[in-house]
């Protein structure tokens, strides 16, 4: 009998060691205890181990239940994780679209605080205004004036009144113009194309007057032709008093009118518009860089014109094309050339983003969402009387290297 007890105790201890080593579960030991109820050896230790294991299993089970509770859907039924994610995507879709609508409504680029500041960005294809700050208030155009001088010169080239290789006389009045200038000398001549490149890149006032006198006979008469053409294009508030943009209190325009003129240059004269993308040109041995420095660092920008006088601040009309979308932007009254360029870049960036958001909004509207009904619907009345053909390839003579 004593021998049996000893053997039974040894078996109990052996089983306990096996449990602690992980080879057996506590339930096996309980079974052994049930078979030998008279032997209590090691029972308290086994009970403590069972308690610890039970707590561990309880904690694990609690975590599992908690994780499962997150996967219950509205109907109260358990749903697999993948289905739950799909449901969440569907439930959040409307919220995401609403966020995009709010973004489209709240596109507000930084606005310079100067009283003379104004801007406008439009989608050239539709004329839709994507952003505007005081677009109809009068401003001095400065050298943006030369955009109209060039428009009339392009018309003369198309009609045959001027030819690119034609030489124009340089008057004393032209040679005496204030800078910026090419340094033309009275009594000499300049090729029409060189004069046009001088306007586009150097914003040369002497070359501007040469062209104006060739087409209008005098600066004053040419300015009247400029104002008349402005009215024909729909530029309702613009008045020109000289062809260069030098200070004159009566020479005024608006951001909206300059957007119209930018549009007209792009689409009415596509064969000549590539002149505006020239980085520079050489005349009489001197290289002149384009004043539009933003064009070299902003993707898709291919023109148009800068301007500055003290009364106007730093002005810029810019055209940028990305894929099928062309934007025309206007900034008046920048505090510096760099500030003006940065402002234009910010306006264009946000306008492109707004158009991208608008595509999603249109898809929403197509399925009955009216959230965009109150978005701005201002439009520029662009002059489409001339066939609209966007420039694709530069004119051969305009794309040549420096001359």
Short description:
With 403 residues, the protein is an alpha+beta fold. The protein contains eleven helices and nine strands.
Topology (elements, then pairings):
Elements: H1 2-20, H2 26-35, H3 43-69, H4 81-105, E1 118-123, E2 129-133, H5 146-159, E3 167-169, H6 172-175, E4 189-191, H7 192-202, H8 205-216, H9 219-233, H10 255-268, E5 280-283, E6 286-289, E7 301-309, E8 313-322, E9 325-334, H11 337-366
Question: Could you characterize the architecture of this molecule?
Answer:
This protein has 403 residues and is of the alpha+beta class. It folds into two domains: 1-48, no CATH class; 103-366, Beta-lactamase. Helices cover 45% and strands 13% of the residues. It has helices spanning 2-20, 26-35, 43-69, 81-105, 146-159, 172-175, 192-202, 205-216, 219-233, 255-268, 337-366; strands spanning 118-123, 129-133, 167-169, 189-191, 280-283, 286-289, 301-309, 313-322, 325-334. The chain has a five-stranded antiparallel sheet, sandwiched between helices. A hairpin with a 2-residue loop joins strand 8 and strand 9. It is elongated. The chain starts with a helix and ends in a 37-residue tail after the last helix.
């Amino acid at each position: 009998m004593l021998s049996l007890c000893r053997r039974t105790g040894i078996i109990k201890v052996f089983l306990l060691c096996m449990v602690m080593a992980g080879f057996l579960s506590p339930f096996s030991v309980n079974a052994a205890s049930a078979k030998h109820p008279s032997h209590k050896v090691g029972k308290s230790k086994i009970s403590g181990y069972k308690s610890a294991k039970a707590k561990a299993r309880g904690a694990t089970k609690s975590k599992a239940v908690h994780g499962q509770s997150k996967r219950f859907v509205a109907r109260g039924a358990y749903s697999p994780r993948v289905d739950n994610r799909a449901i969440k995507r569907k439930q959040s879709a409307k919220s995401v679209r609403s966020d995009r609508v709010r973004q489209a409504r709240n596109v507000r680029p930084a606005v310079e605080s100067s009283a003379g500041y104004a801007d406008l960005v439009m989608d050239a294809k539709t004329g839709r205004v994507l952003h505007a700050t005081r677009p109809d208030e009068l401003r001095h155009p400065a050298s943006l004036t030369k955009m109209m001088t060039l428009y009339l010169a392009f018309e003369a080239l198309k009609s045959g009144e001027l030819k690119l290789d034609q030489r124009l006389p340089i008057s004393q009045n032209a040679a005496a113009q204030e800078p910026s200038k090419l340094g033309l000398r009275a009594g000499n001549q300049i090729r029409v194309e060189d004069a046009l490149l001088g306007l586009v890149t150097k914003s040369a006032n002497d070359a501007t007057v040469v062209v104006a006198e060739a087409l209008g006979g005098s600066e004053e008469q040419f300015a009247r032709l400029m104002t008349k053409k402005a009215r024909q294009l729909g530029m309702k508030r613009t008045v020109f008093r000289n062809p260069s943009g030098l200070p004159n209190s009566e020479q005024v325009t608006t951001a909206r009118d300059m957007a119209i003129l930018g549009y007209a240059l792009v689409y009415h004269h596509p064969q000549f518009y590539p002149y505006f993308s020239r980085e520079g040109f050489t005349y009489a041995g001197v290289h002149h860089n384009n004043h539009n420095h933003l064009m070299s660092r902003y993707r898709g920008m291919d023109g148009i014109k800068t301007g500055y006088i003290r009364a106007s601040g730093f002005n810029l009309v810019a055209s940028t094309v990305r894929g099928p979308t062309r934007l025309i932007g206007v900034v008046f009254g920048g505090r510096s050339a760099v500030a003006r360029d940065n402002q234009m870049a910010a306006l264009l960036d946000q306008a492109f983003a707004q158009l991208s958001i608008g595509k999603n909004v249109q898809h929403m509207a197509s399925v009955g969402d009216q959230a965009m009904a109150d978005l701005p619907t201002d439009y520029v009345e662009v002059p489409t009387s001339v066939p609209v053909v966007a420039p694709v390839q530069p004119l051969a003579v305009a794309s040549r290297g420096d001359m």
